[in-house]
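Trying the structure run again after the queue cleared.
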Amino acid sequence: MDATRLIQELQTTAATAAKLVEEMEFGFLWSPRRKLLSIGLDDSIADIHSACYDLLASESRTATFVAIAKDEIPQETWFLLARGHTIDRGRPVLLSWTGTMFEYMMPALWMRTYPGTLLDRSRHGAVLSQQEFTALKRIPWGISESAHATRDAAGNYGYHAFGIPQLAIFHGDLDSLVISPYSTFLALNTLPKAALQNLRKMAHDGWFGPYGFYESADYGPSDRRSWRPDYELVRCWMAHHQGMSLLAIANFLRDGIVQEWFHSHPRVQATELLLHEKPVNHLLSLTA
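Done. Tokens:
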């Protein structure tokens, strides 16, 4: 009986989610001047915000893809997303806003990344950069936006977009090395063996609580001269990070099942050619 009720509840949830997707509108967020999606509606001026999402190496490419698939914005918007590169240890990697694992990996939870493509090369390059960034410190890897150990007067943890500086366009003013387990879950289908080893290391070090892995471990300033692997665990769980981890696990255990669900939709199938873009090495404008 419990299993039957669970199936019915999941079917109801799936139907509600499908209804929300169909009702969701993107067209009014499209900027005719920049031909990109605005970051949102500014109700103080009753118009869309002047800032736009303009990076391919960003979670926002999901919204652009879906809006194109729903025929609410023109396909040219995809090709106007910036494709600036950097070279990290000989590897070309798309630049992201803050160099987080989240920006490179989150869309791949449901959008397929095809071998040999521009996005696939940057996905692998970003994970390798993440590993190398902490390798000399001999600590787990995986850096994304997350909660950190600094608390406000009410005792709430702070939140910040931590990333790998060599992959980032924007460098924030909070200098702290914060490792988040959900970042490693996002890499399960990119470098599975390394990701599992990393998660085992975190679990061995006590980063696991009653609701799964804790939000993060805060090692403090990343540029301190005398490095010691001391850290403070951020003992909380964030629903969206836990949700991404569960989707990544589902993809890992069931051969990309979440991607299969997404790509089974006719609109996605009609648009997925955008994801096959190949790197054009001789045309790249590289930034060291």
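The first helix runs from residue 2 to 23. Worth checking whether this holds up in the mutant runs.
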